[in-house]
Amino acid sequence: MAKTTKRGASHHDNDAPAHFVPLAVIIDEYDGVLGQYISATGAGDVVVTMPVTVDVAREGKQKFFVAVAVTTAFEGPEALSDEVERTAPKDHRPVFAWVPANLFGRDDFGIFIDEVPIGEVLKNSLVNEVIEQAAIEATVVALGK
After folding, report:
1. Rounded Cα distance, 133 and 145, in Å
2. From CA 131, how far away is CA 67, in angstroms rounded?
3. What Cα–Cα distance (Å) separates residue 82 from each residue in 10, 51, 88, 113?
4. Which residues pair with 21 in a beta bridge?
5. Are 54 and 121 in contact (CB under 8 A)?
6. Is the distance from CB of 73 to CB of 102 less than 8 angstroms?
7. Can you tell me the distance from the alpha carbon of 70 to that of 15, in angstroms, rounded to the nearest whole number?
8. What is the CA radius of gyration of the chain?
9. Can you list the alpha helix ranges (DSSP code H) found in the chain?
10. ∠ CA 130-133-135, rounded to 5°
11. Is 107 exposed, middle or buried (0-12, 13-18, 19+ CB in 10 A)?
12. In terms of Cα–Cα distance, which of 97, 133, 139, 136 is closest to 23?
């Protein structure tokens, strides 16, 4: 939960749950910049979600629920990955990625993507779409400063 200081600026409460927010909200209400959402809400941990239907070669139309978690207070992705699995819309295959922003600039920083048997190109493309549309890279750099 965000707390407000005497000057009115918000800061993140490490005990607060992660915010789950649709990519469409980030695009429509925050100019496609996750950092603006974080500033406006005081969220420290956010999972950007995108349900999508993709026409996969030789497979036909498939539904995916892409979720990219950007965190500063999580030791690992398991709890968020489990929640994405639990809350994915019916008939959508979850695709989960974790970006531990608190590790940015360190050797152990990276984007971790759950194993999903859909092919690396498709999986990486789906995750990259969310990263690009929500300006996650710029947000992580800003959080790391």
Report:
1. 22
2. 10
3. 28, 17, 10, 13
4. 48
5. no
6. yes
7. 16
8. 15
9. 23-29, 34-41, 78-87, 120-133, 136-143
10. 100
11. exposed
12. 133
Number of H helices, E strands in the chain: 5, 7
Q: How far apart, in whole angstroms, are the C-alpha atoms of residue 111 and residue 42?
A: 23
Tokens 């779409």: give the residue: 129
Strands 46-56 and 19-22: what pairing? Answer: parallel
- Is the pTM above the cut of 0.90? no
> pLDDT for 48-94, tens place per residue?
999 999 998 888 899 999 999 999 988 899 999 999 999 999 999 99
Closest CA to 46 of 67, 64, 76: 67
Tokens coding 9: 């600026």
